[in-house]
């Protein structure tokens, strides 16, 4: 799979995301990563493949990992970039970069692993062929 394309979203940090130390609270970075993945899926026209209402499958987060590099402060603009890093039989992983927009300094990098779950069985299942084909068609 070619993973050169990195759609991204830009957002402004809200005061509600700031902790007592004056920067974005650690837990909020996970929200930013999830938002980046959803924006990636929308930009790549893949979002419909991951909607539960369109399928008998759901995708559950198996693993979430964030590495912090530099703080993000209130009112900073952040560029969030995501890409599909790996597609397996029952899971796929995304890599996410969060950069301060004004200087493109890396503030955090993340990884999310999603597992495909058969809703009837409640167990991991192979990613449907149509979803695999769509993922592989993204440049």
Fold and architecture overview:
Mean pLDDT is 91; it is low at 1-5. This protein has 2 helices and 6 strands. The protein has one domain: Hotdog Thioesterase (Thiol Ester Dehydrase, Chain A, Roll). Helix content is 18%, strand content 39%. Strands 1, 2, 3, 4, 5 and 6 form a 6-stranded antiparallel β-sheet that branches. It is α+β, with helices and mostly antiparallel strands and 139 residues long. The radius of gyration is 16 Å and the shape is elongated.
List keywords for this structure.
139 residues, single chain, six-stranded antiparallel beta sheet, disordered N terminus, 18% helix
Instruction: Tell me what portion of residues adopts beta-strand conformation.
Output: 35-45%
Mean pLDDT: 91
Count the E strands.
6
- Class by SSE composition: alpha+beta
Number of domains: 1
Dominant shape = elongated
Query: Separation of termini?
Result: 8 Å
Biggest sheet layout: 6 strands, antiparallel
| Low-pLDDT segments, ≥5 res | 1-5
Assigned CATH class? Alpha Beta
Helix share, percent: 10-25%
Number of distinct helices: 2
Radius of gyration: 16 Å
CATH fold assignment: Thiol Ester Dehydrase, Chain A
Query: What's the helix-strand series?
Result: EHEEEEEH
Spell out the CATH superfamily: Hotdog Thioesterase
CATH hierarchy: architecture: Roll
Chart the SSEs and their pairings.
Elements: E1 8-12, H1 28-43, E2 57-68, E3 77-87, E4 91-100, E5 105-118, E6 123-124, H2 129-137
Antiparallel strand pairs: 1-3, 2-5, 3-4, 4-5, 5-6
């Amino acid at each position: 799979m070619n993973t050169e394309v990195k759609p991204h979203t830009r957002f402004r940090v809200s005061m509600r995301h700031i902790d007592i130390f004056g920067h974005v609270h650690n837990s909020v970075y996970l929200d930013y990563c999830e938002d980046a993945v959803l924006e990636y899926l929308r930009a790549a026209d893949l979002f419909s493949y991951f909607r539960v209402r369109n399928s008998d499958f759901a995708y559950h987060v198996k693993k979430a990992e964030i590495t912090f590099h530099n703080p993000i402060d209130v009112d900073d603009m952040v560029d969030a970039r995501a890409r599909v890093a790996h597609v397996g039989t029952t899971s796929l992983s995304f890599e996410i970069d969060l950069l301060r927009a004004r200087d493109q300094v890396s503030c955090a990098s993340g990884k999310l692993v999603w597992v495909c779950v058969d809703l009837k069985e409640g167990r991991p299942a192979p990613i449907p062929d149509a979803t695999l084909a769509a993922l592989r068609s993204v440049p």
